[in-house]
Amino acid sequence: MAKELAHIYGENEDEAELAGLIHDVAKEFTRGEIEDYAKAHKIKIDEVEQKQIALMHAKLGASIAKIRYRANIEIQKAVLFHTTGNRNMNTFAKIIYLADKIEENREYEGVEELRKLAKEDLNEAILVVIESTLQKSIRTKRLIHPDTVDLRNYLLSQENTTIQK
After folding, report:
1. Separation of CA 121 from chain center
2. pLDDT of 159 over the 90 cut
């Protein structure tokens, strides 16, 4: 999916494929492994990540992408931002963020429509993903990472879109 979106949006397809393959390299780390790696590599764990340690796999993944795979900075940032999003995402990082949410093994209500939208409007597709993430987080009483909220607000302000009452 990353390679396909890269093709559509004029980004480097090989780099997108690599980022798509390595973005979850730290996803199966245990809490202890995450904490040990973060300490050894001086990676900060924020308050939300401390409570929801699985979010840390993106930060660790970016570090591993740099050290183990010698990935360039664009791939590192895309891996770093693929979980929570970030207002500083460029098109390449947006592609990796969305590809993670809509890859072919994902099956959930609305994923087919989201796949179509992702091929037409990256920002709008990201807003749909964020809405879904926020709703699920609220339903399950999970913390919402500030980067996700900040990204949503940034995209809405860029599009001059207002929230309906």
Report:
1. 16
2. no
